[in-house]
Amino acid sequence: MKVSTMDLVSSILKGNIDELVAAVSSPELNGEVLMVLTTAIAVVVGCLIFFVVKRSSGQKKETVSAATKLVVKVPEVEEEVDDGKKKVTVFFGTQTGTAEGFAKALAEEAKARYEKATFKVVDLDDYAAEDDEYEEKLKKETLAFFFLATYGDGEPTDNAARFYKWFTEETERGQWLQKLQYGVFGLGNRQYEHFNKVAKVVDEILADQAGAKRIVPLGMGDDDKCIEDDFTAWKELVWPELDQLLRDEDDNAVTTPYTAAILEYRVVFHDPTEVSVQDKSWANANGHAVYDAQHPCRSNVAVRKELHTPASNRSCIHLEFDIAGTGLKYETGDHVGVYSENLTETVEAAEKLIGLSPDTYFSLYTDTEEGLPLTGKGSLAAPFPPCTLRTALTRYADLLNSPKKSALLALAAHASEPSEVERLRYLASPAGKDEYAQWVVASQRSLLEVMAEFPSARPPLGVFFASVAPRLQPRYYSISSSPRVAPSRIHVTCAVVYETTPIGRIHKGVCSTWMKSAVSLEDSPNCCWAPIFVRQSNFKLPADTSVPIIMIGPGTGLAPFRGFLQERFALKEDGGELGTSIFFFGCRNRRMDFIYEDELNHFVETGALCELVVAFSREGPTKEYVQHKMMERASDLWTLLSQGAYIYVCGDAKGMARDVHRTLHTIAQEQGSLSSSQAESMVKNLQMTGRYLRDVW
């Protein structure tokens, strides 16, 4: 009997095993038919397995894993649809989320006011994949708002840095944005020298060079006061302008008073016994290709030691993160961002105020059960991974900063005592501006202290994490090592924050306190660890190692200079030529807080540092600081500057850095016989040419 291919397939489909066996046994079965038979059997078996697995998985109970896989963010390409509506783009450059929050708040209210327009909120870093795209895309914009924060020494935020560099460096584009109408709101702190510099520069270039039309005055948000009030006042200037631009002549709609929705996540509670709990939700962080604030690197604490002597009543910690084998890299002068955890005592206080068990296991969502977006979804931060309440409060909630006015309104909405509701609303209102400034801000009342004053306010978890407690932010430190000397370690030099607030609370810095109590690998294999990432800095040594350098950094301002000196030591060991160097360091007393004294002396002995000048502010009858030592060496400093020296300053921006800046101005006047304006011009030129660099906070 001759066996055909169709006979075999028919036997398989009918399940006729006897016929199949007979066919296989046939001597006439050739290789081609055998191949078809094998393939057919494989397909049938595969289908059976698929349906069995699918059915069994559908019958399983849903479980939640605490760890979520980190994936590379791929920008979505959105097709522009011409729906006839006027389009408004709202850009933001944010470091802590405040600028992003304001951008989204403006867009949400604008959507309610102007139904015939569309509003799109855009992260400046996501706006263009390549720098060349910025110009092409901006030329298509006709109405835009920019929310731009300034941090450090007048620097843009991480997500705005690429845009800002591109936007400010090219000055020969002509009037290329004449079709654009715009507004800018800056976020800064008036205590810093370069208050709202980024917003000022962008606003000036848009109007004076690019030919764009400013429709509302530059907003100057001041975080030293109440930046929410600054935003609200500026926003009221925006609406009349948008009324003119976005309302038709026949649009007689009456604008009802707008009340911002209180943001709330959808919360799903889970039975802890059915949950696959992983103790550390950052545990798989090292699987990501690129490390940044959203994708940090898990790093063990390799070394921790106290730098002050027992005679000191303060504390300063030297800590080393082990990055061997992680792929994380850094350069001398960079910053490290560290995610730390709230103290147990802080978390327990929060648990009592919330009124839920610390073992409550839950997950957050920004959509409904049907998959529809929640009200205000665009303003909600991405949910953190499913976890217990204790874990959420420990890792993700900022509990010790003073609450924003929006948080007070959220508490008021969930308070049961009428007098508390009235009081909370008053503090958040324009009428209560002065009392909020005094009772909350000046008194440094934390979120937990405010909640304790209003015990009937018990917001549900979805509201608490969306509208009451901001997300706990990473702390940044100047890296105090060089990869030439410590390629597998990132060193941090951290002053421990321990101070009394105006109302008597002992405030312990979140990250510095964690560092002080961290268990290192030297002490135990079960050491502490933290999610970290590196932020690049322009605080770098001259490319030409023979150029003279002047370094000024009292206290922990020494940190980046320790990295500089390690770098110079390695260069010298390799036979490199080093220029003259002088370091002005300051501390209170050599017997208490002269940190890294032996190392600094070693750098002098080996020639990595030419001269160390130390100011001890508590040893003599009068206080002596680094600026006083600078004046004593004014002639030498002027000579070095005349030889092309770079000058570096690191430390406190509000006090020391200002004093040093004034001293530099005075030295230029006196040693260079310059007028005040000439000295100012010279110092500014040093900054513009990159010879005067500051790493301040």
User: Helical stretch count?
Assistant: 23
Q: Which of globular, elongated, flat, extended, rod-shaped describes the shape?
A: globular
Helix-strand makeup class: alpha/beta
Tell me the major beta sheet.
7 strands, mixed
Distance between the termini: 92 Å
The value of Rg in angstroms is 31 Å
Strand content: 15-25%
Weakly predicted, low-confidence segments: 17-25, 31-37, 47-78
Please tell me the overall pLDDT: 87
Task: Please provide the count of β strands.
Answer: 23
Helix content: 25-40%
Outline the structure in words:
With 697 residues, the chain is α/β, with parallel strands linked by helices. The protein contains 23 helices and 23 strands. Strands 1, 2, 3, 4, 5, 6 and 7 form a 7-stranded mixed beta sheet that branches. It has a 6-stranded antiparallel beta sheet with strand order 14-11-18-9-10-15, covered by helices on one side. Helix 1 packs parallel to helix 3 (31-58), helix 12 packs antiparallel against helix 13 (418-428) and helix 12 packs antiparallel against helix 16 (461-468). The protein starts with a helix and ends with a strand. The relative contact order is 0.08. Mean pLDDT is 87; it is low at 17-25, 31-37 and 47-78.
Main features:
alpha/beta, single chain, 697 residues, seven-stranded mixed sheet, 23 strands
How do the strands and helices of this protein lay out in sequence?
Layout: H1 5-14, H2 17-25, H3 31-58, E1 86-93, H4 98-113, E2 117-123, H5 124-127, H6 131-138, E3 143-151, E4 155-156, H7 161-169, E5 181-188, H8 197-209, E6 213-214, E7 219-222, H9 227-246, E8 266-270, E9 297-306, E10 316-322, E11 335-338, H10 344-354, E12 361-365, E13 387-388, H11 389-395, H12 405-413, H13 418-428, H14 433-442, H15 447-453, H16 461-468, E14 475-478, E15 489-495, E16 498-500, E17 506-508, H17 510-517, E18 529-535, E19 549-552, H18 559-573, E20 581-587, H19 597-606, E21 611-616, H20 626-632, H21 634-642, E22 646-651, H22 656-672, H23 676-688, E23 692-696
Parallel strand pairs: 1-2, 1-3, 3-5, 5-6, 5-7, 19-20, 19-22, 20-21, 22-23
Antiparallel strand pairs: 3-4, 8-12, 9-10, 9-18, 10-15, 11-14, 11-18, 12-13, 16-17
